[in-house]
């Protein structure tokens, strides 16, 4: 299964049966940190008694930072400034490779990721400022060796500066680009690339997609779903890029450079202007709409087998039942919610500064709160380990008290 953190909300988060085991061997000495007193953020007592508090013990750290992070089969993949990397939670960085493109010296990791059996693709936006015209670019690496296989650059015409997303269907990598500025000036571009060579198989033209921003791209059932700021969700045939269906009433917002949607199972869970919605994309998929609490959504939806969790710029966190949308619990932090990850027992929340908090996933009981290096970057949980972004990557073992 594919797991995600702040952005790139594609696939499903890794859900384990028990994430309370001790630390694996790492390269850094243990540095345990105490927790605060357990409490229930929602103000309601726990039906099952107090949950176990946890401490975080550092296993290892490494110089590459994390902009966005994804997990697949126990591996951790992330992009950062000018780089792409793979790590394992018990042994640290496996490989780290350069992600510059044709002289672009400063490149920011984007919320764009696609993975196949042997290759994975990351998207990047050149850090050239408002006046630059350089296009976004996408790099594909061998998952075992980290060797770069091919790179693709969007047109450097000022219209395709931002990497808006990536997905994969069989042997085709589908990437999406747009830019910033006025919506009326957009020329959204989606390109289908042969996965092993990077050869262009097709690309959309102005007649295919609305004149708008691309907020989110993903795939389900052999089709590509492209959510636009205006015009709903456009469904494309991955073989030739032709338009097969339009869901005009579906909406996915975008914030902090990240689409606020996630296809999980047979539903698209999406943040819209009036709350969180579940849209059916497969037989038996869910359909519901619920509010998000105070503030604008700044993290999520993070979806796993039973929860949908969102966080806002006012610090509120809301956990919803995946099947019905019913509100299960609310919590709050000081500051803007920057990233959310779930594990078998807990919901982990990072703010836009340096704090990380853990809650019992069943009732929102506070289990851990500490200052850890996040700095507005992504987080994820793999088995018994929390991976935090920032200027460096840090792996912490989860220990129950």
What can be said about this structure in brief?
The protein contains no helices and 36 strands. It is mainly β and 401 residues long.
Folded structure, characterized:
This protein has strands spanning 2-4, 39-40, 54-62, 68-72, 75-80, 83-88, 92-98, 107-115, 119-126, 137-142, 148-153, 162-169, 172-178, 189-194, 200-203, 214-220, 223-228, 233-236, 243-247, 254-255, 258-259, 261-264, 267-272, 275-280, 288-290, 297-303, 307-312, 316-321, 327-332, 337-342, 346-351, 355-360, 365-371, 379-382, 385-388, 393-400. By secondary structure, it is an all-beta fold. A hairpin with a 5-residue loop joins strand 28 (316-321) and strand 29.
Q: From the structure provided, what is the oligomeric state, counting identical versus distinct chains?
A: single chain
Question: What ranges have pLDDT less than 50 throughout 5 or more consecutive residues?
Answer: 1-50
| Number of H- or I-type helical stretches | 0
> What structural category arises from helix and sheet content?
mainly beta
Superfamily (CATH H level) name = YVTN repeat-like/Quinoprotein amine dehydrogenase
Tell me the name of the CATH class.
Answer: Mainly Beta
Q: What level of helicity do the residues show?
A: under 10%
Shape: globular
Question: Mean pLDDT across all residues, rounded?
Answer: 85
Radius of gyration over C-alpha positions, nearest whole angstrom: 20 Å
Number of strands: 36
How much strand?
over 45%
Instruction: Return the CATH architecture.
Output: 7 Propeller
């Amino acid at each position: 299964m594919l797991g995600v953190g702040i952005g790139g909300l594609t696939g499903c988060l890794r859900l384990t049966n028990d994430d309370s085991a001790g630390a694996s061997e790492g390269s850094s000495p243990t540095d345990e940190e105490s927790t605060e007193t357990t409490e229930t953020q929602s103000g309601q007592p726990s039906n099952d008694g107090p949950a176990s508090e946890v401490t975080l013990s550092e296993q290892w750290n490494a110089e590459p930072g994390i902009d966005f992070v994804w997990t697949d089969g126990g591996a951790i993949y992330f992009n950062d400034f000018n780089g792409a990397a793979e790590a394992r939670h018990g042994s640290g960085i496996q490989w780290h490779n350069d992600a510059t493109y044709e002289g672009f010296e400063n490149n920011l990791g984007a919320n764009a990721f696609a993975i196949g059996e042997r290759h994975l693709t990351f998207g990047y936006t050149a850090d050239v400022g408002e006046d630059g015209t350089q296009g976004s670019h996408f790099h594909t690496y061998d998952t075992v060796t980290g060797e770069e296989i091919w790179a693709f650059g969007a047109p450097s015409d000022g219209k395709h500066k931002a990497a808006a997303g990536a997905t994969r269907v069989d042997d085709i990598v589908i990437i999406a680009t747009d830019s910033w500025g006025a919506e009326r000036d957009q020329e959204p571009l989606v390109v289908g690339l042969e996965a092993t060579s990077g050869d262009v198989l097709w690309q959309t033209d102005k007649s295919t997609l609305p004149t708008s921003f691309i907020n989110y791209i993903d795939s389900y059932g052999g089709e590509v779903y492209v959510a636009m700021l205006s015009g709903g969700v456009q469904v494309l045939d991955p073989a030739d890029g032709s338009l097969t269906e339009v869901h005009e009433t579906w909406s996915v917002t975008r914030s902090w450079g990240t689409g606020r949607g996630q296809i999980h199972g047979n539903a698209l869970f999406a943040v819209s202007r009036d709350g969180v919605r579940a849209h059916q994309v497969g037989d038996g998929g869910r359909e519901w709409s619920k509010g998000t609490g105070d503030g604008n959504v700044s993290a999520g939806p993070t979806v796993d087998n039973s929860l949908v969790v969102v966080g806002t710029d006012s610090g509120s966190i809301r956990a919803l039942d995946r099947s019905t949308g019913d509100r299960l619990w609310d919590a709050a932090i000081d500051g803007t919610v920057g990233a959310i990850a779930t594990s078998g027992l807990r919901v982990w929340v990072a703010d836009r500064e340096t704090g990380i908090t853990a809650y019992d996933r069943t009732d929102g009981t506070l289990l851990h709160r500490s200052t850890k290096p996040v700095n507005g970057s992504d987080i994820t949980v793999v088995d018994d380990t929390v991976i935090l972004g920032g200027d460096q990557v840090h792996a912490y073992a989860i220990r129950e008290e």
